[in-house]
Amino acid sequence: MGRRTLALRLRLKVTRLAGQTRAALETAKLLAKHRAFSEAASRSIVRGLAIELVRNTHDPAQLQKVWDQLDESEQRMPEVALQAGERMLALGGDFTVVQQWLLPIWEQLVRPASSLPQELRLRLVLLLERGFRQSPGQPDAAWLARIEAAQLGNPREPLLQYLAGIACMHLGLWGKAHQLLRQSLTQLADEQLRRRAWSALAQLAEQREDGAAALEAWRKAAQG
Q: What CA–CA distance (Å, rounded) separates 51 from 85?
């Protein structure tokens, strides 16, 4: 190991211990350039530091600045983009911005034979749902088109059925929302998402003043 690389590794350790995340990230990228770690290890270190920077933001403007300072390769890391989106919504920021950040991750999700892990697929769907819920008015037309096209292209994917059903709810398309959410429940394995699907069905039943169906859906939502 060269003296420069050794010095960089020492600087990375010191800056991380001192809580200087920005400096640590820049040092980690230099180390990756000098191949001081394996490609997988370098990616993991950079990803972890980028996520830490995002988590430590305190308002939407600061988060936007941190995001703009990240390299494109870091912005396209699913874990980083999802953390940034979750943080922006938690800080009361603009969901339109979040949707821009999430687009490359969405493209990974809908790609044939996608390798995006199930945990991240679930986080993406829940984050989009949360944004739709927090944003006034109807969902963005471009995103609705993306969701509809993805669901029609893969009609047996329960996550896409669920998300399309939620989008239809926000558009007031009660019948279509009910159909999609019901279909998703036949295959949804995640307990949290099953509860949310039943809760949505309960709300739809209340919309059509079907008390018995609403009560049954709320009961199943409580059961998980």
A: 11
